[in-house]
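Sorry to interrupt, but I need a hand with the structure work. Could you write out one complete protein record for me, on any chain you like? Just paste the record in under my message, thanks.

. . .
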Amino acid sequence: MPKVDLNVIGKKTEPVVFEYTWRDVVLYALGVGATAEELSLVYENAPGGLKVLPSFCVVPAVRAFPKFGDDIDWSLMLHGEHTIRLSRPIPAEGKLVQTGVITDIFDKGKGAVFHAKITGETEDGRHLYDAHWAIFYLGAGGFGGDPGPKTKPVTPPEKVAPDFSFTCKVAENQAALYRLSGDRNPLHIDPAAARRGGFDRPILHGLCTYGIATRALVNIPLAGDVSRLKEFRARFTSSVYPGDTLTTEGWKTEGGYIVQAKTEHNIVLSNALALIK
């Protein structure tokens, strides 16, 4: 049975500096499906300047991930939920200073849920973002810990058409491209690794699906204004495969949009809410 070390809660990482250029920004945008028609996302000399998708913050954030403990079996870790909160637009190039911390570990019986937060700032100390991971550790529950708060459900209104909808075909090489931004888990490229994980073939990164949904938000209701997205949280409910058709929909609500993403077969992002400035 996997072990949970509660002593890791609250221990911050040392500051991690992430230096990047426009190439990293563009590579990420291409990795979440941006095309040449989305000039402000993929061209360093775009009129008005290169825009950085808010979800790009996950790229530097993974470099500052806190330690979950010794002897962690990462094959039993599932990314359950993700949230980003932004104070200002991310610069198109520069240096970011980040720290990570495990904020909570909850006992869910069949597993443990680790909550990790990575905070990013500019070199001169201005807060840019907090990126939150909720990761389910299969088989690590039952240690007598706090089960944690119940998440308030966020669901689209019944029988109401969405206020925006974006459908795209996930390219067959999308996972191969997305992994170049730093998430090189073989589950997303190696058929043998995918089979060991219980899948018949490599799946798309959950954070790539999340990035595609962020891109839909920026391009449609926000009309390209990346500064207006202040928070986006979502739950990963099913896998996406390269080649799937992915539809992201949003329903306007007070302060933002209720969001849902689905393939032809399943809802893949749920309990999702975007807060807009």
